[in-house]
Amino acid sequence: MKNVIGSATGKPRPAGGDRGRVEKQNVSMTGSRALQAGGFVCGHKIGRGLWEGASAQQWGDWEWQFRNRVRSLKQLASVINTPVESLAACRPVTKTYPLAITPYYLSLMDAAEGDDPLRGQCFPDPRELDLSLGEEADDPLGEETAMPVPGLIHRYPDRCLLIVTNACAVYCRHCNRKRIWGDEKHRGVREWLQPMIDHVARTPSLREVIISGGDPLLLSDGLLECLLGALRAIPHVEVLRIGSRAPVTLPMRVTPELAVMLKRHRPLWFNTQFNHVREITPESTRACERLLMAGIPVSNQSVLLKGINDDYETMRDLLIGLERISVRPYYLFQCDPVRGVNHFRAEIRGGMEIMEKLRQNVSGLCLPRYVLDCPGGRGKIPLQHSFHSAHGGAGIDKHSFDKRDRMD
Q: Does the reported pTM lie above 0.90?
């Protein structure tokens, strides 16, 4: 196929419950005290720390945020005001799984709380190298074996997923693709993208293309628009999807200009990942609002994370908060058996109990589907209660593994 990516315009960019917080009351909001806060004043908030000299304009510039990410244990120790020697156990971890956290996302955390739910998602942890269970794998979903061309995952007849970059604004420690963080392949450039476009063009059964990574919003506006335009020009491609955590970890990336550009490529759906209500801030709300005002539906795909959001109140507050900002709760994923994330994996039974309590107490608009992505690339299956009236009520009897109910 003719090279349709063209040249990019512009400069390419590099490819629980709540503990220990003082809450502000807002009687105009409903829900728990945590949700009523609408925001939190941490007792020892990290704040801007290393970046006290930054202007408001710099702080709101996504490229400045990206350039000034915390990438080393020395920087991290400085930010949380602790001796770097106290993080010595994390040195082997960062050699295997790199560290990257934006100043913005750090500013939402409590420096004094080791079990802060945002800190737990992005600080390196020695448990990432614990392989005691022996059942984890770098690629448990079999993505690498489902790639007809590098970077393109084609597991389902009518849709595929493109890994357009391995870069992220924040490296989330529970990521199911953490195997690619240190990959030196030249992802995020035209030469990487073109073979994937060519495969989509010569495969008429593909009607939907999911653009993922890494985080595809770390591509420049110009390169991202060229990619979207090339895919939109393929007659059999009907729907495009973008998967990005930028609204949560780098919300200033969703600029008015980006929203206008994305609007030109509708029908376009946007999936993001809020895992805790404290990630719903004025900045992240504004990012989602810009997408919504451009006519782009925004859905959320949370991960059930042990010690982060694996209790009813925390999950309820998150889902109600998402409904308030018009972001649809889409999936709640059981954490995958990926090497380096076992300490995040909550019990399925507990997840099912949370979902049952949610079904009894919150609006249907707030309810995601609790699913397990089957190892070996066999698709998603719903995890749900089985009801037996003969026993006088609900009982957790089995998981629903109906092949007809696989999802993506």
A: no
